[in-house]
Input
Amino acid sequence: MQNWYEVCAVDDIALRGSRIVKTAKGCVALFRTAQNDIYALNDKCAHKQGPLSQGIVHGNLVTCPLHGWVFSLETGEAQGADKGRVKTIPVRIVEGCVQIQLADQTALTG
Amino acid sequence: MIGGGLLGLEAAAGLKVQGMDVTVLHLMPTLMERQLDETAGHLLEKALTDRGIKVITKANTKEILGTTKVEGVRLEDGTILDANIIIMAVGIRPNLWLGKDAGLDVDRGILVNNMMQTSDPNIFSVGECIQVENRTYGLVAPLYDQAKVLGSTLAGKDSKPFTHFEAATKLKVTGINLFSAGDFAAGDDRQEIVLRDAAKGVYKRLVLQDDKIIGIVLYGETADGPWFYQMMNAGDDISEMRDTLIFGPAYAGGGGADPLALVAGMPDEAEICGCNGVCKGDIVSAITDKKLGTLDEVRAHTKASASCGSCSGLVEQLLALTLGDDFDTNAVTAMCACTDLSHQDVRRMIISKSIKSIPDVMQELHWTTSCGCTKCRPALNYYLICAWPGEYVDDGYSRYINERVHANIQKDGTYSVIPRMWGGMTTPNELRAIADVADKFDISTVKVTGGQRIDLLGIRKEDLTAVWADLNAAGMVSGHAYAKGLRTVKTCVGTDWCRVATQDSTGLGIQLERILWGAWAPHKLKLAVSGCPRNCSEATCKDIGVICVDSGYELHFGGAAGMHIQGTQVLCMVDTEAEVIEYICALTQMYREQANYLDRIYKWADKVGYDYIRSVIVDDEQERKAYAARFLYSQKFMQNDPWKERVEGKEAHHFDAPLVPKKLEETV
Output
């Protein structure tokens, strides 16, 4: 079953910054772009599982810190010649709070 | 510059770039008259004049003036021109005495047959000194061909005889496009096709004889040069395409006007690199078979564009053609896809327009993206730090993760931590503290690095500040092992212990590291100090090296020992430690202020010239002292241990703890 989960306030994520949400099935990376849009992706690069949350955020893209693959924060698609996709996670902002949609068994941090 | 031929003009443009006032004196009415017709010669003269190079044609130099050194020249018409340096590039004439004395037949050069054999069957000769089939050669391509013929003969293999071909000439001056080949004198049995676009500065002329191209002059737009040249050397009949020939392969049956289509349309045997005789087919198969991806790699494997470099553009197009999207031709000149400006343009404008933040750079210089990319943001952040020390506020989010969190990310997302060990020296207390940290944080791997210090690997991001706090408590600070900046100063034990050392290399290394640490730079900066020429600390492959000798200190720079290997060049000799420090601070600052981001010292020096760097750092005391002073000023703001600052809470948002999701009463 999918549920909405509250994770932090919008202002807890710096512009062009990121936060990590720990779940039972790995980490989710939350990003806030310079244009103040918020996105959530699996925190694992499609290439070698690098932590995308540690990458540089530019436009609505993030560059993986390990080998420089670039992903769209919107679609999770790898850019340029690289082929791959990172799972995106639904996000919404309610009264200045960031909420993401997770399956219950994913959300449990044990 | 006496002589307005190919070499003279390239040298003149080079000197102008180095900031000298240059006047070119040329005997003939137009420049490069052997390669260019009158019209193209005038276009060239205008282009050079526009760059601030004075050109005087019909200038017959009568006398070089000066008593103990050069002071000027007097022309035949009485004009006197002042000069500090006179360079003559007035053609070559073989010095034939050796051949003559040996009893060889000589004329304008040493006479050889098509197998490079002189009149004495046991003596062979190649190069600019020979005359073969009544021709002498000054360009490098035919000389390489001669060497190939001779090499085969000497190796006991059958060789094809040397045959004449028309070498194409290109002027290697940035921004001036010029291509000429063959014979372009007018004549009754010759016709010509000319295309002229004065406003665009384009001039193209083909000389035809018996429906074949025998001469080519292209100015302004030279992309079609190799295509014409190929047809000229092949002796192709052009009568079928004569109407559109001058418009190039785009109209004469090739692909579209796209330059890539033009390269795609060339046959495999079309010569791309005239200097080294490399054909299109050689390059394409090297790219495919050896999986080459950059211009440098193609140069390394095929030698194409490795001599004069004027075919670099064509080689890049072949890379683009063969690799498709994997090759980004724009990256070579523009800083990144966000701008058309080069690194140097951007650096210059940051200073001249007094731009002090990344958003302002993007606004003022018309960036095409809203917030840059992974290539430009770290470069801009560095350029601004360098330009405005103490004023610019570092932008952590424009730094690569390692510099953002002052540790090195590893493949599993953990980090490694390397404390500084000044000059590679440590103490039992430091080692104990490192061992304690390793135990306390369950650090599985402890490794001695190549830079004479100790690496602790596998640390979780959330433990970084606690690890640093413990290391700080034992007196250790960040080793900046993650930085585009000063890494290490490697030393040997010097006169403290070594029976052959000449100076206190360890002490000098430590002093240097204490002065240089914390400095951000275009790329990493590694130094070494060796106590004697046996060079145990391997100073001659470092960015900057010091070799101690009895009489003082030999300073080195521009070494590399990574993917690229090259030995250093000598900067100069100095007498005292104080001078070593001043020269190295000045060199470091010059590199910091001038190099493109991500160029090591050797790459920067390869581009601007080792002599140029020496002329500033060694020969110009005032400049050297000014650079060193700017470096020391900048260091006032840099030498704070980033680990201590972060233990105390600076930029804590980069070390935020992971979030835990809280379930809401809303089922989807």
Observations:
- The radius of gyration of chain B is 30 Å.
- The longest helix of chain B spans residues 577-594.
- Chain B has 22 helices and 26 strands.
- The longest strand of chain B covers residues 202-209.
